Amino acid sequence: MTQTETPATTLSRTLPQTDRTRHSRLREQGSLERSDLEAILDAGFVCHLGVLVDGRPVVVPTVYGRDDTRLYLHGSVASRSLAADPDAPVCVTVTHVDGLVLARSVFEHGVNYRSAMIHGVPRAITDTDEKLAGLRRLTEHATPGQWTYARQPSRKELAATTLLELSLDEASVKIRTGAPDDGDGPDAALGLWAGTLPLTSRWGAPTADPLLPHGIKAPAHIVARAGTRHA
Amino acid sequence: MTQTETPATTLSRTLPQTDRTRHSRLREQGSLERSDLEAILDAGFVCHLGVLVDGRPVVVPTVYGRDDTRLYLHGSVASRSLAADPDAPVCVTVTHVDGLVLARSVFEHGVNYRSAMIHGVPRAITDTDEKLAGLRRLTEHATPGQWTYARQPSRKELAATTLLELSLDEASVKIRTGAPDDGDGPDAALGLWAGTLPLTSRWGAPTADPLLPHGIKAPAHIVARAGTRHA
């Protein structure tokens, strides 16, 4: 998971630590590398957004995109929460499950995963140009090439779209990879099999809308994705 | 996604509606079938748990299991939150992303998914037998066959394990399947390709712990899973 990159911007390549992002459990592998955060965000397109609704946590799946400093989020639930309290904090979590960790003991069982958590107070994007730019990021994040292929939003559609931005300033990353932890402990003598069962997600072949007239082929940027690994 | 089942228990097969589970947006397909809730929970093993920490939402991925009426959750974050306020509500969301919905217009783009959201106040399980039964559910949920294969928790390990239960009484389900919605609208005349790009998750071949002595084979319940579809 470690990546070496030449910093392309003036952003710190190390994530700042706050009370909420500091890793408190040793067995969970925290990362302070910005490249790990970016890799996790770029590997997926659906996050789980936690907001307060009437003082209770509500966790909704929603699509996102990003630039160097901000996450862009679709979300009517978050915007209702934001309308009720413009200073209401949210938490966005993106998780990729890479497989099961099957140890000798149930106690040492676990999951290999990559997860990023972002804390902050989102802002609703209202400026038309800014909203268009954000939606472009979001669309291209999920499906590179689709923004210029599909019909772009009209002014009316833009007005009907809720888009939020959330700073990436306060983020934490946790990654677990590899074998179980009890291979050199007393349970190794049990003679049980131990290892991992990997989980892989792949894009399938594009399925045409049944209403699509014959003769319209899927564009290259969609066809090329079929069979490739996701996340 | 619809399933017809003979009710095996006295539980209502229709989920009760509350202010929080009532579906407020027509374009999202809510389901009130308990079988849909159960199918979504049974298809995965990692949920996103939203808790309040110092009045802010925190969303953590964690493993879960279930019986007919309750969810079982691993979770130190939730238990810390619970210790601070035993009546603190949580929200658990399980989402399976089935693919991208690629419409003629960016505005109609979306995601095919199955998602279940459970609201409630969790309870920490402290009784030893109850904890053992819950951990068995949780272990067998992620890896059927593993509870009897691996070494089961000792009393000391049980004491060190945090297990919560959460009632399934207040749950809502949302499912989106199928083609984009703009196939019979004015954008159909644009002549653009539209359809879906499916996403499928599969179990790979078991990978032995490098510390495993030669000659110990992976058990049948693990080997049989390789290549099968997840979620």
Automatic annotation (TrEMBL), chains A, B:
**Gene3D superfamilies in UniProt:** Electron Transport, Fmn-binding Protein, Chain A (2.30.110.10)
Q: Where is the composition biased (Polar residues)?
A: 1-18
Q: Which InterPro entries match?
A: Pyridox_Oxase-rel, Split_barrel_FMN-bd
A Pfam family cross-referenced in the UniProt record is Pyridox_ox_2
Q: Where is this region: Disordered?
A: 1-30
Q: Which domain of life is it from?
A: Bacteria
Q: What is this protein called?
A: Pyridoxamine 5'-phosphate oxidase family protein
